[in-house]
């Protein structure tokens, strides 16, 4: 695999500083039942990294002591962490809203019986990966049979009320491009998704988010192998909008890796670029203080252009 980090560290990206913290995004491990071509964490069935119960309890202590109100769970497949349901239950008891970044096929995995019902009972917001509404494109990017299992997962969630108006159960879909290009308009693409999924499968959802592929890890390595890395970086830089700097997700979020260490975002985590929250090389969640948290510089690199190109990109979709 080609390491793109050395190509990204020397940057002219504009400086960023933190504002009010409102979200913890936690990577519960790299174990996944899929091995997607665009995956920026290189997750897959052969990975073994997973967050321990000790670190999960450290998270819960931090949430309680700092009145954190939003917990964004990712992976890998976050549900494959053996303590996933414990974390969700304990966080909900603290009145924390929870996002589960779900690949949909996990709902039919052995050992995951009752998972969909558990998510509904705890009113967990689901952000479900579905990079296209056609079978061939999804299977090409995510693996044979993934599209059919994803549709089945969406139908299971719909049957529980997810994505239905006034149900209180939010089901958002996440799109990412198939190659080295920017996502289309989020608004127009959502209309296409809504019509196609409703007409073909009677599926409803709340919103569609678009996410730009980051030039790191598995996708970045593919760009290098194809000789497309420099061209893609030129595209991101040429499409940069200063307007998107105001709403990039790293200003209000911190990312926690499976070992409990702090990063400014999930992408910096994958590049091993620890947050500058303290002077130490790495800060553990159990050591984090929010004193003087605001205005701390955010670690940047050329990959940050992926968040500000075009309409902007974040884990919550387009920025503008």
Task: Characterise the protein shown here.
This protein is an alpha/beta fold and 320 residues long. The protein has helices at 5-8, 53-66, 84-93, 115-121, 135-142, 146-159, 186-201, 217-225, 229-238, 266-270, 305-308; strands spanning 23-27, 70-74, 97-102, 125-129, 171-175, 207-210, 253-256, 262-263. It has an 8-stranded mixed sheet with strand order 6-5-4-3-2-1-7-8.
Compute the separation of the termini in Å: 34 Å
CATH topology call:
TIM Barrel
Please, what is the average pLDDT?
92
Helical content stands at 25-40%
Largest sheet: 8 strands, mixed
Beta strands, count: 8
Strand order within the widest beta sheet: 6-5-4-3-2-1-7-8
Helix-strand pattern: HEHEHEHEHHEHEHHEEHH
Task: Please identify the top-level CATH class.
Answer: Alpha Beta
Which runs of at least 5 residues are low in confidence (pLDDT < 50)?
none
Derived from helix and strand composition plus strand pairing, the structural class reads alpha/beta
Radius of gyration: 19 Å
Strand content: 5-15%
What is the H level of CATH, i.e. the homologous superfamily?
Aldolase class I
Shape verdict:
globular
| CATH hierarchy: architecture | Alpha-Beta Barrel
How many separate domains make up the residues? Answer: 1
Number of helices: 11
């Amino acid at each position: 695999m080609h390491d793109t980090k050395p190509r990204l560290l020397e940057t002219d990206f504009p400086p960023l500083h933190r504002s009010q913290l409102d979200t913890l995004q936690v990577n519960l491990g790299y174990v996944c039942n899929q091995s997607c071509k665009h995956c920026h964490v290189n997750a897959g069935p052969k990975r073994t990294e997973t967050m321990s119960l000790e670190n999960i309890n450290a998270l819960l202590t931090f949430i309680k002591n700092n009145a954190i109100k939003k917990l964004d769970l990712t992976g890998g497949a976050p549900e494959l962490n053996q303590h996933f349901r414990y974390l969700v239950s304990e966080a909900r008891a603290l009145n924390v809203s929870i996002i589960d970044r779900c690949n949909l096929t996990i709902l039919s995995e052995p050992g995951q019986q009752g998972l969909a019902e558990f998510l509904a009972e705890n009113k967990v917001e689901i952000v479900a990966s579905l990079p296209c509404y056609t079978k061939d494109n999804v299977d090409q990017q995510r693996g044979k049979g993934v599209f059919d299992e994803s549709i089945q997962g969406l139908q299971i969630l719909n049957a529980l009320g997810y994505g239905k108006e006034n149900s209180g159960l939010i089901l958002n879909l996440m799109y990412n491009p198939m190659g080295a290009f920017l996502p289309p308009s989020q608004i127009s693409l959502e209309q296409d998704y809504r019509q196609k999924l409703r007409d073909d499968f009677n599926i409803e959802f709340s919103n569609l988010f678009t996410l730009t592929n980051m030039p790191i890890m598995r996708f970045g390595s593919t760009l290098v192998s194809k000789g497309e890395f420099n061209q893609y970086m030129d595209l991101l830089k040429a499409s940069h909008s200063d307007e998107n700097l105001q709403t990039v997700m790293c200003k209000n979020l911190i990312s926690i890796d499976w070992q409990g260490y702090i990063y400014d975002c999930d992408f910096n985590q994958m590049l091993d670029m620890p947050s500058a929250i303290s002077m130490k090389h790495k800060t553990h969640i159990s050591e984090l203080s929010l004193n003087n948290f605001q205005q701390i510089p955010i670690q940047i690199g050329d990959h940050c252009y992926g968040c500000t190109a075009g309409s902007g990109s974040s884990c919550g979709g387009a920025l503008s």
